[in-house]
Design goal:
Elements (H helix, E strand, L loop, with lengths): L6 H13 L2 H8 L3 H15 L4 E4 L2 E4 L1 H25 L6 E6 L1 H7 L4 H8 L3 E6 L6 H4 L3 E5 L8 E5 L2 E5 L2 H4 L12 E4 L11 H8 L11 E3 L2 H9 L4 E5 H9 L11 E2 L4 E4 L2 H4 L2 H18 L12
Parallel strand pairs: 3-4, 3-5, 8-9, 8-10
Antiparallel strand pairs: 1-2, 5-12, 6-12, 7-10, 7-11
Amino acid sequence: MVALPSLRGLQAFEAAARSGSFAAAAEELSISAAAVSQLIRTVEEQLGRKLFHRVNRRVLLTEAGVEMLPRLTMAFQEIGSVARDIGGDAFRPRLVISVPPSMAMGWLSERLAGFVASHGAADISLRGEDDPVPFDHEMVDIRLSYGPHYREHPTRAIARDAVYPVCAPSLAGAAKPETLAGLPLIHTDWGPTGAAFPSWRNWFGTAGIEPGRAVKLGLSANSSRTALDLAISGLGVALAQGIYCARALENGRLVRPVARSLELRQPYCLTIPERSARRDVVAAFREWLIEECVRAVSSPALGAWSYED
């Protein structure tokens, strides 16, 4: 039988290389940073290869280390999968989910209990963050994003959305296409690095209405979720994605005062790195999340409004 290097040493290397830090690996493995360093040195001696360049207090992967990391990560995930299959609840699957901040702040957090109830308990890390996402450094298993940002990983378009004028019921009586410019408008600005969000100028343009200076006035928010909350509070009319506003329309906290909507330029996409694609918990969450997204953007409430255009 071929002599194998220390399994504990390989585990220490994989944790340190994945996290980019001996200290982080030590915390994950519940040992000291010095012990991590010694375990890795032992593996290097056994393999006859340097796995890290040690430069001052920094460590950088060598070519050998870069080649080993993804294969070891997959191997340890497979070992964990076997342990969970045999050990049941003693080994709960870990799932790292990355979504845009607005989706983490309410939309997905309100729905996760449904996934756990139907698929069993899991150690879930929910990350609300903008693109680009450091998949390997943070060991992200699945990323939902607006648009196909990650060509280096398998990416699938799952749903196409639109934006809808929405407001609190108290404002709906004064809202018609030609009068919207006279109401407080809520603007969404995703910032200089974000995708272009349909603006009120775009909406009025498609409606053939000249809004004047009103298109520049009103409240402004840097996230879709904040703009939606402002609308629910009765502070104005917002252009909201269907995926976010469908539930508020269904329960009457918001109404669609006019029918005209604007389709978003890009679809929502799911990105799953190959190292995670074969894990059962990832496959289950992928199918559940797709179903939730499609259900939201297809809500009957998105086809109803208070006044005809």
